[in-house]
Amino acid sequence: MRIFFTGGSGKAGRHVIPYLIERGHRVVNADRVPLDLPGVDNLRVELTESGQVFNALSALAGLDELDLPAVPRYDAIVHFAALPRILIEPDCKTYRVNVMSTYNVLEAAAKLGIPKVIFASSETTYGICFAQGETRPAYLPVDEEHPTVPQDSYAMSKVANEVTARSFQARTGADIYGLRINNVIEPHEYARDFPAYLDDPSLRRRNIFAYIDARDLGQMVERCLRTDGLGYQVFNVANPDLSVGISNAEVRKRFYPDVPVKREMGETETFYAIDKARELLGFAPEHSWRNELRG
């Protein structure tokens, strides 16, 4: 597939793009900073400017396409570009950049007839990660039906983007899938960070004790690219196990004593439910911190 990938130089994108290239896709990385990776085409784009987005999405992917009779249309957009959390820029700018860049991408996709958009939403939409003080889930495990009522600018922007995506999908009938991505972990971070999480599980409370390996996120994006006809969907994206060493029951006892449990859960099962991604996409994460630390 010919894929326009925004924000590919970021923490998640620099792992997802190689995963896609290895599987034969052609990827243009639209970012302010190029990704130094063989096989990727880079294009500097200011995504908050609508004209630049339309131009980039209707342009050549590389000089080799000059030999084609016409400029091909992109098969899909993977939109990961964003200010990645609060407290990098003022809240008003975080909201504006994330909302306007996503609107511009979705509008251009709709008007240029691009049939699929996969966009990065976030675990923060559930209102727990960046809550002031402590906010607990309404129930466990947290699935895609859980309320999304955040109070911070970053998560607000992601909820607004989901509403915008649903509206464009209703207009066009294209496939638009939102990924509520949990805390992305790169391979080198297991040895660096997880021993502390084993010593003090409370460090993982704001991430609902979950995580997603960056390589498994690549698999998730690939599954979305290969699965057509689902219309508008949002998916939780996480690995199937908790990010702490104590059991599911012990975490509930210590941190969620009064939170309702909707169903029986496995001994190490994540509270960030991925049942929907497994059922509709065949998502099957392959990496676990347990194996990485043992290795």
From TrEMBL:
Pfam families in alphabetical order: Epimerase
Record InterPro entries: Epimerase_deHydtase, NAD(P)-bd_dom_sf
Residues annotated as domain NAD-dependent epimerase/dehydratase: 4-192
Superkingdom, taxonomy of origin: Bacteria
Protein name according to UniProt: Nucleoside-diphosphate-sugar epimerase
Species of the source: Paracoccus homiensis
